[in-house]
Design a protein that fits this description.
Structural class of chain B: mainly alpha
Shape of chain B: elongated
Mean pLDDT of chain B: 91
Distance between the termini of chain B: 113 Å
Oligomer: heterodimer
Number of helices of chain B: 24
Shape of chain A: elongated
Largest sheet of chain A: none
Number of strands of chain A: 1
Low-confidence stretches of chain B: none
Helix content of chain A: 55-70%
Helix content of chain B: over 70%
Distance between the termini of chain A: 48 Å
Strand order of the largest sheet of chain B: 1-2
Strand content of chain B: under 5%
Radius of gyration of chain A: 20 Å
Order of helices and strands of chain A: HHE
Radius of gyration of chain B: 33 Å
Number of helices of chain A: 2
Largest sheet of chain B: 2 strands, antiparallel
Chain lengths: 70, 583
C-alpha cells in the first residue's frame, strides 16, 4: 500500500507541476489561466455532480427495481 | 458510366435477402461483404446528386452527397461493418436483417436530398429499430419496444405534418436550411429533438436501448440519435435554443448516469450527454462549432459502439447487466482483453489525449468560449468530468473490479473472454479510435467547413490530464459513496408509464359506469314494456314486491272479474257527472 500511495502522490504533484510549466491559453477567462484550474475544477466538479446525483436520487429519482411492476 | 448503387439500398436489399440465402458460412461472408460493398459505393459517389425521380409532381432526390453527408455516411458504414463482425456468431438471421434495415435507413436519412425521402427513411428507421429492441426477447424488451414505437410514431407524425406544411408554404421539397419560426419548422424540430433524445423527450433511449440483445444494442447506438444530429446540422444551424438545450442535455445525462446500476443504461445516458455536446455545437452555429459537432458525431459513433460492445460482451458471457450483480467477482482476471478494449472506448469518450474524443469534443467546448457564453461553457466542462467519472471509473471499477457490500457472500462467476469475432470487432474500433486520436487530420479533412483548429495545444493537453487525474483522485476518495445501488431511476417516461396505467384505470372506471347506466336503463325499459302490456297486472305485481317479469299469463289468476270493468266505468261516469254539475 505504501509505495502505491507515494507513487500516486508523486504523479499528482507532477500533473500539477505541468500546469505551472505550460503557458496558459491567452483567450481563456482569468480563472482558467490559473495553472491548477483544471485540477481544482475536476475535483470540485466531481463532488458537485456526486452531491447533485445523491440529492436527486434521494428525493425522488431512485426507486426500488420493481417500481413499475406493481 | 453506370451510376453507383445507393449504399442504403445495399443494406436494405442485403438485409432482406440474408435470411433466404442457404449456408451459414455464406451468410457470415455476406454479413461482412454487405458493409464493404456499401463502403465501396460510398467511395464511388463523389459530391453531387444521384437518383432523382419525380413523385406526384415533386422532385425526389435519393442521394445528395456533400462533405456533411459523407462524414456521417463513412461513420455509419464503418460502425456497421464492426458491429456485423461483433454479431457474426449470432445465428438469428432475422435480427441481422432488421439491424441492416436500421443501417440502411440511417444512411437513407443522411443522403436524403428532399423532405419526402427524409420522412420515409425516418419512419423506416423507427420501425426497424423497434424490431432490434424486440429481438432482446424478454418481457421488458417487448414492453420497452412498444413504448419506443409509440414515441417514435408520434415523432414521425409530427415530422409528416411539418413536411406537408413546409411543402405547401414554400412550394419546395428540397431539404436544406429551414427557417425557424413558423409552425412547420417547429413541428419538424420537435420531431428531430425526439430522435436526438433531448430532454424532456429523451426517455425512450435509456428505456429501450438496454433491453435489446447485446449485439443488437450496438447497432442501435449509432443511427437514431446521430441521424437526428445530422438533420439538425443541415436544417437548424445556429438556432440559439439548441445551444442551451444541448448544454443541459450534456449535464442531465451524466447526472442520471451516476445514479444508474445497469451498465448499458449507464452508457445510454452517456449517449444523451454526448449528443448534448453535438446539439449544443449546432446551436452555437460557428464554423468551429458545426465542424465540432460533425467530428464529434463521427468519433462518438466509433467509441460508443465500442463501449456498448464491451458492456455487451460482459452481459453475453455472464448473463448479468447490473453493477451490483457484477462487482467483486474479479472479472478483470477472467476478461482482461475485453476490459482493455473497453477502456480505450472509455478514454475516448472522456476525451483523454491520444484518443479520438480529444480531437472532437474540445472543439465544441472551445466554440462555446469563443462567442463567450460562460454558462454553456461551464456546463459542457462539468459534463466532461461526469463522463470520465462514470464511463472510465465507476462502470469499469464496478463491473470488472470492485468489492461486494460488507458481509455479502459473493459467488464466483464462470467467465471467460467473449468469442473471438467480438474481440476482433472491438479491436478494430479501438484501433480507429486511437488512429483518429493520433492523426486528427484524417478526420479533419472530411469536415464540411473551413477549419483552423489545433487539438494538441500544450495547455489543452495539460488541462485534460489535470482534469482526469483529479477527477480520478476524487473518485477513489469517494468510491464508497459512488457505489451503484440496486435501484432504477425515474425519468420522464414515468409520465407515460404511470400515466398509461392511470389512463387505463380511468378507462376501466368509465366503462364500469357506462355498463351500470346501461343495465339500469334496460331494466327501466323492460319495466315500461310490462307496464304498457298490462298496466293493472304490472301495478299489482309491483305493489306486491316489485316482480318485473311476472309469471306467464294464467287465465284463472290473471283475468279480472267483470265487476272490476263496470267499477272503472262507474267511477269515470261519476267523475264526468261531478264536473258537469259543478261547472
Amino acid at each position: 500500500m505504501k509505495p502505491r500511495l507515494i507513487l500516486t502522490t508523486v504523479g499528482l504533484a507532477l500533473v500539477l507541476a505541468l500546469g505551472f510549466i505550460v503557458p496558459p491559453d491567452h483567450t481563456a477567462s482569468p480563472p482558467e489561466k490559473l495553472p491548477f484550474f483544471e485540477a481544482a475544477f475536476g475535483f470540485a466538479g466531481c463532488l458537485l455532480l456526486l452531491l447533485a446525483a445523491k440529492f436527486l436520487g434521494r428525493i425522488f429519482v431512485q426507486r426500488r427495481e420493481d417500481y413499475y411492476d406493481e | 458510366m453506370s451510376s453507383p448503387v445507393h449504399p442504403a439500398l445495399i443494406f436494405i436489399l442485403g438485409g432482406l435477402l440474408l435470411p433466404l440465402i442457404p449456408g451459414r458460412r455464406v451468410k457470415q461472408a455476406l454479413l461482412l461483404c454487405i458493409p464493404l460493398a456499401a463502403l465501396a459505393s460510398l467511395m464511388a459517389m463523389p459530391s453531387g446528386t444521384y437518383g432523382e425521380h419525380t413523385f406526384l409532381g415533386y422532385p425526389l432526390v435519393f442521394a445528395r452527397v456533400d462533405a456533411l453527408s459523407l462524414c456521417f455516411g463513412y461513420a455509419f458504414v464503418i460502425v456497421a461493418f464492426a458491429s456485423s463482425l461483433y454479431a457474426l456468431h449470432i445465428r438469428n438471421y432475422g435480427q441481422h436483417a432488421v439491424t441492416f434495415l436500421t443501417v440502411g435507413s440511417g444512411l437513407g436519412i443522411v443522403y436524403a436530398g428532399d423532405v419526402f425521402t427524409l420522412f420515409v427513411f425516418w419512419e423506416l428507421l423507427a420501425v426497424s429499430s423497434v424490431f432490434v429492441v424486440w429481438y432482446g426477447k424478454s418481457r421488458q424488451a417487448y414492453n420497452a419496444g412498444f413504448r419506443y414505437l409509440m414515441v417514435h410514431l408520434f415523432g414521425g407524425t409530427l415530422l409528416l405534418a411539418g413536411v406537408a406544411m413546409h411543402v405547401l408554404e414554400t412550394g419546395s421539397t428540397e431539404f436544406t436550411r429551414l427557417d425557424y419560426g413558423n409552425l412547420s419548422s417547429v413541428l419538424m424540430l420537435i420531431s428531430v429533438l425526439i430522435n436526438a433524445a433531448a430532454p424532456p423527450l429523451h426517455a425512450w433511449l435509456a428505456d429501450a436501448y438496454p433491453e435489446a440483445s447485446p449485439t443488437g444494442s450496438v447497432f442501435l447506438t449509432a443511427f437514431t440519435t446521430k441521424s437526428a444530429v445530422y438533420v439538425l446540422l443541415r436544417g437548424f444551424p445556429g438556432l440559439e435554443l439548441l445551444a442551451w438545450l444541448g448544454a443541459i442535455m450534456a449535464v442531465y445525462g451524466v447526472i442520471y448516469a451516476l445514479m444508474e446500476n445497469d451498465i448499458r443504461r449507464l452508457l445510454a445516458y452517456h449517449i444523451i450527454s454526448q449528443v448534448g455536446y453535438m446539439v449544443c455545437g449546432v446551436g452555437l452555429g460557428t464554423d468551429l462549432a458545426l465542424n465540432g459537432s460533425t467530428a464529434h458525431a463521427f468519433c462518438h459513433i466509433l467509441y460508443k459502439a465500442l463501449l456498448f460492445m464491451g458492456a455487451g460482451a460482459v452481459i453475453e458471457v455472464t448473463g448479468r447487466s447490473k453493477i451490483t450483480d457484477l462487482q467483486g467477482r474479479g472479472l478483470y482476471r477472467t476478461m482482461p482483453v475485453c476490459l482493455t478494449l473497453y477502456m480505450i472506448g472509455a478514454f475516448s469518450i472522456s476525451s483523454i489525449p491520444l484518443f479520438n474524443g480529444f480531437i472532437s469534443k474540445p472543439m465544441i467546448v472551445a466554440a462555446a468560449s469563443d462567442p463567450h457564453r460562460p454558462l454553456i461553457h461551464l456546463l459542457l466542462h462539468l459534463a466532461s468530468i461526469g463522463t470520465f467519472l462514470s464511463t472510465a471509473l465507476k462502470l469499469p471499477y464496478g463491473a470488472w473490479f470492485g468489492r461486494g457490500w460488507p458481509g455479502e457472500q459473493l459467488r464466483r462467476i464462470e467467465a471467460k473472454e467473449p468469442p473471438l469475432n467480438m474481440l476482433v470487432a472491438m479491436g478494430l474500433l479501438s484501433l480507429l479510435c486511437i488512429l483518429t486520436g493520433l492523426y486528427p487530420q484524417l478526420l479533419y479533412d472530411l469536415l464540411p467547413y473551413p477549419l483552423t483548429y489545433a487539438p494538441y495545444a500544450a495547455y489543452t493537453v495539460v488541462g485534460a490530464i489535470q482534469l482526469a487525474a483529479f477527477t480520478a483522485l476524487a473518485f477513489f476518495l469517494l468510491r464508497n459513496k459512488l457505489r451503484a445501488e440496486a435501484t432504477i431511476s425515474l425519468d420522464t417516461d414515468w409520465f407515460y408509464r404511470k400515466g398509461g396505467v392511470l389512463f387505463l384505470r380511468a378507462c376501466g372506471a368509465f366503462s364500469d359506469a357506462r355498463s351500470a347506466i346501461q343495465s339500469r336503463v334496460s331494466r327501466l325499459v323492460a319495466r315500461l314494456g310490462v307496464m304498457s302490456a298490462n298496466p293493472v297486472l304490472a301495478l299489482r305485481d309491483g305493489l306486491r314486491g316489485g316482480n318485473v317479469n311476472p309469471a306467464p299469463y294464467d287465465a284463472d289468476s290473471h283475468r279480472q272479474a267483470i265487476g272490476a270493468g263496470v267499477m272503472v266505468a262507474l267511477i269515470v261516469f261519476s267523475f264526468f257527472c261531478l264536473v258537469f254539475l259543478l261547472r
